[in-house]
Amino acid sequence: MKEIAAGLSAPFPISSKICFNVLLCIADLSSLQQQMIISITDSQMLLPFASANISGIITDRRGKHKVLAHRAVRALICRAETERGLNRKHIIEGLKGSLQRMQLEYVDVVFANRPDSNTPMEEIVRAMTHVINQGMSMYWGTSRWSAMEIMEAYSVARQFNLIPPVCEQAEYHFFQRDKVETQLPELYHKIGVGVVSWSPLACGIITGKYENGVPESSRASMKPYQWLREKIMSEDGRKQQAKLKELAHIAEKLGCTLPQLAIAWCLRNEGVSSVLLGSSSPSQLTENLGAIQVIPKMTAGIASEVDHILENCPHSKKDYHH
């Protein structure tokens, strides 16, 4: 079953009240959407401003809705050597800290975010196996790993009778296709590693709001996102906006919005188990969830029309049908 994982996303710190309202909307809407799960992430990159509200929603509504809580262990940003990367100490202590903050006994998935060349693969896999055996997590996955690195983890797990990763978090959208469509399918077919894709709207580029430039209130107008502004205003960025205008006609034909088409397009890939959505408002969340109704309309013909417009369909050595 295809799933949409909805969570909170904001390019800047927001108040606990706004955070609570968006997450409450997520919880309420999930009761109406059978193919939706609530995604609660605890990452070192996230500020703790919403911890109490998040745990409150989980506590009050876990019995009514599907909740996916996951911990992202990062290979960057810490002080001491054992407080960063994917070494055993950091993985175990980091996950314990996450469970305390979210007031949970366990998370569904713990992700190893970015590979760590300074830690032996065996140590990483043994640490992940340990937290699963200790009941702190049900599964573990990778994020931004190459197919070769994922295969190495799988081989180490099989060699030492450990637990292999079950999924890879990968960026996937209209303008970022190569990894998910050419590198990961073989892992999906050979060892069953699924894809949890993120950024289906390419940091807002695919919403259409940058069609006439960068609005003052948009993410790309903020200083930390200068790289996004430059990307949008570049020659390639303007070409992308032109293609989005054409794709909007397909969306209109299907009776949906451009973001809904983009999300449904991601989910049509057989190797994609779930698409992560980041929403900064209840209205944005409601619109994006409409993609669920578009999935049945994503026929081979529609996919071919999209490919014709994008002109970036990667060619795999093997023919894996979507």
TrEMBL record:
Position of the signal peptide: none
Bilayer topology term: Peripheral membrane protein
Keyword Transport annotated: yes
Cited InterPro entries: K_chnl_volt-dep_bsu_KCNAB, K_chnl_volt-dep_bsu_KCNAB-rel, K_chnl_volt-dep_bsu_KCNAB1, NAD(P)_OxRdtase_dom_sf, NADP_OxRdtase_dom
Residue ranges constituting the NADP-dependent oxidoreductase domain according to the UniProt record: 81-294
Classification via Pfam families: Aldo_ket_red
Top-level division of the source organism's lineage: Eukaryota
BP GO annotations: regulation of potassium ion transmembrane transport
Entry keywords, A to Z: Cell membrane, Cytoplasm, Ion transport, Membrane, NADP, Oxidoreductase, Potassium, Potassium transport, Transport
Compartments, as annotated in UniProt: Cell membrane; Cytoplasm
GO molecular function, one term: oxidoreductase activity
GO annotation, cellular component aspect: cytoplasm; juxtaparanode region of axon; voltage-gated potassium channel complex
Catalytic activity annotation: a primary alcohol + NADP(+) = an aldehyde + NADPH + H(+); a secondary alcohol + NADP(+) = a ketone + NADPH + H(+)
Family membership noted in the UniProt record: Belongs to the shaker potassium channel beta subunit family.
Protein name stated in the entry: Voltage-gated potassium channel subunit beta-1
Source organism: Takifugu bimaculatus
